[in-house]
Write a structure and sequence with these properties.
The protein is mainly β and 312 residues long. Helices cover 8% and strands 55% of the residues. The longest helix has 21 residues.
């Protein structure tokens, strides 16, 4: 653990990043407007379970985290289990994990359950100066989701109930949310696919900052069912936290998948661009994939891992 009483060196930058992060969290809890928000919401801004794909369209990770409709199982599948993880550079010290499962309860109805957890490490206690003392400050949040998805003709719809609890130092809080999502394939008999969903939509907006997501894509190249290249655009907007525009492509060739895209994040008049890349392989009902996203403000990129198993 690094102390500011040591001579200034490169490792002190990592400490200062966490120190500044802790200060910002404390300031947000002290302001009247932000005091109504349940802390830990910022930790769920990371694209957990997404390997450079559009959030409301991606069904690679089971559990329908970003769009309840994506939890709908493919024909022939009786269930699916999955694990996803995301780590950021030491300068941020954020870590996220998710485990989820889906089961077919009727031919056109799927039930899902997932748990996602996010935390920050090495937030040190300070007094009137940057000198730390005592133990680290615990800061994390856990999100429990349960929902259903159904399909009819070319429309898939989903609903999820979510309960999130969080802790920062000795403070604890919780909030309830209900999310909706839908995917429409072959819109107006075209190859276009549309998706829309909400994320953490609380009955009381004063306690949670909901995110609204929309996306569209279509095939750019299709030789046969074993080789397809799709391209599209998605937009997500979080109340009071800015928006993200994302242009992406996804490629499937036999058992191999690849995704790439560039995101523009706009927050309080500031803009930054981040590249996202992901690759995966499917074999014997298993899917394994890894991904990377560029960091912002000179911080290194984050890395992801995903593993799922389809039960037939």
């Amino acid at each position: 653990m690094i102390r500011l009483t040591e001579p200034l060196q490169v490792d002190n930058v990592k400490y200062m990043s966490r120190f500044i992060f802790a200060v910002l969290v404390s300031m947000s809890l002290a302001t009247p407007a932000a005091a109504q928000q349940v802390s830990g919401r910022d930790l769920l801004d990371f694209p957990l379970g997404l390997l450079a794909e559009s959030a409301p369209l991606s069904s690679r990770m089971t559990g329908g985290l970003w769009n309840p409709a994506t939890s709908m199982l493919s024909p022939g599948a009786r269930g699916e289990l999955g694990f996803a993880g995301l780590t950021t550079p030491q300068e941020q010290g954020v870590r996220l994990e998710m485990i989820g499962g889906s089961v077919r309860v009727r031919p056109t109805l799927t039930a899902m359950l997932s748990v996602a957890q996010a935390s920050v490490s090495d937030i040190l206690r300070t007094a009137t100066d940057p000198q730390s003392f005592g133990s680290e400050i615990p800061y994390g949040t856990t999100l429990l989701s349960a929902g259903v998805a159904t399909t009819r003709d070319n429309v898939t719809a989903g609903l999820a109930a979510r309960y999130r609890w969080t802790s920062i130092d000795a403070q604890h809080a919780s909030v309830f949310a209900i999310d909706f999502g839908a995917i429409i394939d072959h819109v107006a008999r075209t190859p276009v696919r549309l998706a829309a969903s909400t994320f953490l939509l609380s009955p009381s907006k004063s306690t949670e900052a909901p995110t609204y997501l929309v996306a569209a894509d279509l095939p750019l190249v299709r030789r046969d069912s074993s080789f397809v290249v799709r391209g599209g655009y998605s937009l997500s907007k979080t109340d009071g936290r800015g928006r993200e525009d994302y242009a992406f492509t996804t490629t499937s060739y036999r058992q191999f998948d690849a995704s790439a895209g560039i995101a523009q994040n706009s927050v309080f008049g500031n803009h930054d661009h981040r590249w996202r890349l992901g690759v995966g392989v499917r074999y014997a009902g298993y899917t394994a994939a890894i991904g990377r996203e560029d960091g912002a403000a000179g911080v290194g990129g984050s890395y992801q891992f995903l593993l799922t198993r389809v039960i037939r």
